Amino acid sequence: MSPFVDRHIGPDAHQQQQMLERIGHASLDSLMHAAVPERIRATTGLELPAPASEAQATAQLRVLAERNNPGTSMIGLGYHPTLTPAVVRRNVLEDPSWYTAYTPYQPEISQGRLEALLNFQTMVADLTGLPTANASLLDEGTAAAEAMTLVRRAARGRDLRPIVLDARLLPQTLDVVRTRAEALGIDLLEVDLGVDDVPDDVAGAIVAYPAADGAVTDPTRVIESVRAAGGLTVVVSDPLALVLLRSPGSLGADVVVGSSQRFGVPMFYGGPHAGFMAVRSGLERHLPGRLVGVSVDSAGRPAYRLALQTREQHIRREKATSNICTAQVLLAVAASMYAVYHGADGLRRIAEHVHRSAATLAAGLVHGGVQVTHEAFFDTVVAAVPGEAEGVVRRARAAGIHLRLVDADHVGISTSELTTLPHLQAVWRAFELDTAVPQEVRDHLPTALRRDDAILTHPVFSEHRSETQMLRYLRTLSDRDYALDRGMIPLGSCTMKLNATAEMEPISWPGFADLHPFVPAEDAAGMIELVETLEGWLAEVTGYAAVSVQPNAGSQGELAGLLAIGAWHRSNGDDQRDVCLIPSSAHGTNAASAIMAGMRVVIVTANEQGEVDLDDLRRLCEEHRDSLAAIMVTYPSTHGVYEEGIGELCDVVHAAGGQVYVDGANLNALLGHASPGTFGGDVSHLNLHKTFCIPHGGGGPGVGPVAVAEHLVPFLPSHPLHPIAERREGIGAISAAPYGSAGILPIPFAYVSMMGAQGLTDATSVAVLSANYVAARLREAFPVLYTGANGLVAHECILDLRGLTKATGVSVDDVAKRLIDYGFHAPTMSFPVAGTLMVEPTESEDLGELDRFCDAMLAIRAEIDQVAAGEFPEGDNPLVHAPHAARELLDWQHAYPIGTGVFPSGSTQDKYWPPVGRIDQAYGDRNLTCSCPPIEAFA
């Protein structure tokens, strides 16, 4: 076994034995034999390569990276070379205090990344000219698709009218929008909005500004026509272009979407990148995804938190307007810090350099007799060379430059902040032209569209010019947060475990980071081999026939799997099969994804043990026998239990003609012990940011591959620009890039490579051991709500606080906030059962940390007992006032001693101090502010 396994798994052999004794088992094998139902238990081991050492895995990845040929990319199409400031790369993208944090659901200990996200929202709002922007979306293509559904929701009774789609959008954006529209039954009219009029009686339009071919045309005509029809206009734009071009908001746009990739985020062979969406006033409550707002804490001081419909699908389920439950926080932070680093003047210099380079390129082409197809452009020039395009692209590639082959007669060239005069001269040589620099180079931005208003005027974008200031600002923000580099994050269903440095290092290598997603396949040979190898490994560990890594979040994987099921039914002539059964305990994204896939949701009840009620399932399968499409079931269940009836559930659904979708959110409890593809599943999505160690990044990036049985393989996601030709036609694109967030796939590749079959199996065993150990230590103080066979839980346990709350008034919120004073991030609150805490310790926490958590929980129970006994007043006790910020020491106002409040675990020099007190959530929604507040607010 590789030494890495022992470093990944927290408890050593001696600690494991102690834990086993506590729960009454002699060995890990005995525990797993008792926990996992016999019917689904694996009878053979996983077939994976022998585990590699860290050095061996790194060397293997180095070989793959060196097989890629990033060259100098001038392909464009939404992906551009950019320079990540070294201080941002090292202190954000490569810093575990940023990349190991979780979504800021405990805002008191997330103030750093919330401020960074507020900077991002302010940056986007300024550039787009619209007042409210969200905290990022998954990529530009899916942002445009989300905007399409926003238009439909906001159409006020006109939602059945078609939506106009600009044929000049990026090809991947067009395909993603088409995929979503077909599933939702939205009629699209594809029109070249650069020249053609908007058809009558439409619900809205999605228009490019600039277009994929580089053309810059005024979208005002489109906006006014759509408004006259009572619809909304979505503008898809490039934020760097908007530094020089008039903002879409000033031209009348209702919604603006795009990608912030070129703000310092590497191309990463397609992702991860932070998409964005901004809306005009009145549309704030239609925004999908996450929105950071400003509220106040217990002292009345400004404090940040997530606002409005954050993770709304867990509340509204099948009535949710989006299935997005994640974002691209780490990349949004990097993009926002690029703007903080450069400021308005720096961004303007970069944008002017990009445009000047494109204008110089065009002048040289025209001087040499080559026609340039558009007079107005920002960074992209399309040259007409009848019958010669392939030769031009081939000669440029030989010189180390990637151009875009538009068709046999046209070549596309895009400039970037890294474009130099030698690059332009190499391009001219590829056209077989003189390389002398033209004497006259003129501006190609339309005068009427030249931006003349100020951008990025908030002080944060001008205060950090020096390296010293920037470094200290990043450190200040990271110190305000709680991430895995500080201690345990026992969030149930989220699997916050070790993201080893050896797994993380390769993502910054140029061979991976600087690769454009649309280079010829031979120039991405190493990356394609990595992806195909990883997809094969994931198929092996799940028991499925094939995997696609294109979905760039778990929600996208759910949608891809359901679309595959729907397409398979239609291929069999069963167009009427549209009912999706979903257990009442399921993740909220399940129901939202089913609706987005065009299915009707029917809820299956749970029995008293929290398991799927098989009698109700049989009744519903019979009732919907002719229309049943699928069931979505999480396994182990969302209640943290290996349900004994999973095999029978699969049999019942299959007998009624349905397919079984096994949500892979809890795969960390299965690897090596059971495979969904072998115990009855037809399709699953996996969360590589959970089981396979991609870090959560403060709320993204994530990867949600879809795995399918043999009969569903033809219905995996396709992509119009896929490097493999046979994968360009199919059900359509789910994400903007062929392989989704390919840039972070070296992480799970390294993880699987170093763990090997036995290591993955042991990781699952220890994760289950740790959960049962925590349950055993805490069950007398906090009842464990659900258990499976032999009184065991799976990889997580639900602690029931409802009785304590009823008796004492102390809520799960109080316990969660009090845990901060003890130096912990709280478990998951009130999901899947209100009034409970769901704890998932993972395999990576050693016994010392597990005991520290259990000791804290038991101490909090003692404090609750003191409230019940009247020793602490109900309205003035350490629980209701938690967490305690350091400034309270200056003016202590509580009936209990200072030490009790701020040092419940005893005085320590390593104590984590929350930067704010408890945040008033309702105040922030009543007084919605979603951009950087003035400095005076913090006085």
Automatic annotation (TrEMBL):
It comes from the Bacteria. Its cofactor is pyridoxal 5'-phosphate. Residues 6-431, 435-717 form the Glycine cleavage system P-protein N-terminal domain. The modification N6-(pyridoxal phosphate)lysine is found at residue 690. It catalyses: N(6)-[(R)-lipoyl]-L-lysyl-[glycine-cleavage complex H protein] + glycine + H(+) = N(6)-[(R)-S(8)-aminomethyldihydrolipoyl]-L-lysyl-[glycine-cleavage complex H protein] + CO2. Residues 763-884 form the Glycine dehydrogenase C-terminal domain. Keywords: Oxidoreductase, Pyridoxal phosphate. Belongs to the GcvP family. The glycine cleavage system catalyzes the degradation of glycine. The P protein binds the alpha-amino group of glycine through its pyridoxal phosphate cofactor; CO(2) is released and the remaining methylamine moiety is then transferred to the lipoamide cofactor of the H protein. The glycine cleavage system is composed of four proteins: P, T, L and H. This is Glycine dehydrogenase (decarboxylating).
